[in-house]
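Below is a concrete protein record.
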Amino acid sequence: MSLRTWTIREVLEWATEDFARRGIESPRLDAELLVAKALGIDRVGLYLDLNRPLLEQERGLIRPLVARRREGEPVAYILGYREFYARRFCVTPDVLIPRPDTETLIDHALACIPVDAPCRVLDVGTGSGAIAITIAAERPLATVTATDLSEAALKVARGNAETHEVAARIRFERVDLVASGEQYDVILSNPPYVARSDIETLQTEVRDHEPIAALDGGEDGLDVVKALLTATEPATAPGAQILIEVGQGQAQSVLDFAIEETSWEPVAVYKDLNRVDRVVHLRRI
């Protein structure tokens, strides 16, 4: 951008064109979000003031945000938050960015958790806490445990729980999968499920910026899923339920493993908005 006067409209058009040339998937939306953040307003505010000339100081706030997006940094990390299930969650590079696919898990989990009775819920690999916090907020009688191996991720999750006023009903634990000696009625997880050989094929902004530990599911992508199904058997009684997010083409392999190697039996497989088998639902026998 030169020293000439630029309006909000012109800066948005410039950033949109720049992002589009670089192959960014949602160039206009990204431009609006970043310019709005720099100016301290929302996207509606941009459109109400499109023809306003920007001060040099304001342009100076916009430039570094645009530069970070040019380098492939996800918008959610630049903004510091992501919307999920109608709530705003703080995100940092220590946690996976919540995605709409995981809302499919929430929808079906809520159908398993009573509105009017206590329920013990476990969220394995909580990351930002999006699943655990959403369940606690939507089901006030539920008590929730959220586990993760990353203390940095747990710090983010605890902060989000405070923000959404459910911290008193969520126990955060740094542990691999499941704490020994605990019992649960419903278990939820969005585990790492990307096959190791596929990591390099991921979008640059995912591969180079999001935590690999939250993505890498081993050689076939199912190492953590299989370990989870085995580890949760002692933590559940017959009738307990588990819902796990999986990758495209993995659902049948998970069902086969559950039937052949564990005491979990199939209930259903649920599709996401793109009609991809996304959530495997099992019941303890």
Remarks:
- The chain is about 40% helix and 20% strand.
- The first helix runs from residue 8 to 21.
